[in-house]
């Protein structure tokens, strides 16, 4: 039997891409959304079962996960993101999920100076230590979408305000991140216990990115 896959953050950048790619494969999807709006209606038009639930409410999560088998977990960017993950883990255990694919961070570690990055590492550990559930971590670096949001600054002001210094990055698209997630969701046994870092095709520093924008926009950046 084909599984029903839960997608959290289903109206967000990676979540929406995961939903679209799963539906393209005729996979049953239940989308957890924060509110019922036009974006939720767009999901329903794709044949998605939409459920409004608060990721910090264990009872709502338990109802949302009931009757599903696998999940994509996109953690909320919140000071108490670890609380949400523990609640999701409890609901996942009650629902007897067989697999969770979790979005993490490139630099997630227990010693990172950022609280959010340390908590991302802890979220990974919560799911990785759940018995009987195949867990896969997807930990991209800086998303290409984060750069694209700055095109307005570049086009209007001739400035690319990205504090990269001399660092280089190969930013992946939301769609490429979703392809890795979907691959793990559709074959969880093969990817259980593994961690994947999707990237774009080339390492670029800030000046190289600005040069691309300059060529495309036709003005000095």
Q: Could you estimate the helical fraction of the residues in percent?
A: 40-55%
Main sheet makeup = 7 strands, parallel
> What structural category characterises the helix and strand content?
alpha/beta
Mean pLDDT: 94
Please provide the count of β strands: 9
Order of H and E elements: EHEHEHEHEHEHHEHHEEH
The low-confidence parts are none
Shape: globular
For the record, give the distance between the C-alpha atoms at the N and C termini, rounded to a whole number. Answer: 53 Å
Indicate the proportion of strand residues. Answer: 15-25%
- Cα-atom Rg, whole angstroms? 18 Å
Number of helices: 10
Which sequence of strands runs across the widest sheet?
3-2-1-4-5-6-8
List the helices and strands and how they pair.
Layout (H helix, E strand, L loop, with lengths): L3 E5 L4 H12 L3 E6 L4 H7 L4 E4 L5 H8 L4 E4 L7 H15 L3 E5 L11 H14 L5 E5 L5 H5 L2 H7 L10 E2 L4 H13 L1 H4 L3 E2 L7 E2 H12 L4
Parallel strand pairs: 1-2, 1-4, 2-3, 4-5, 5-6, 6-8
Antiparallel strand pairs: 7-9
Helix pairs in contact: 1-8, 3-4, 4-5
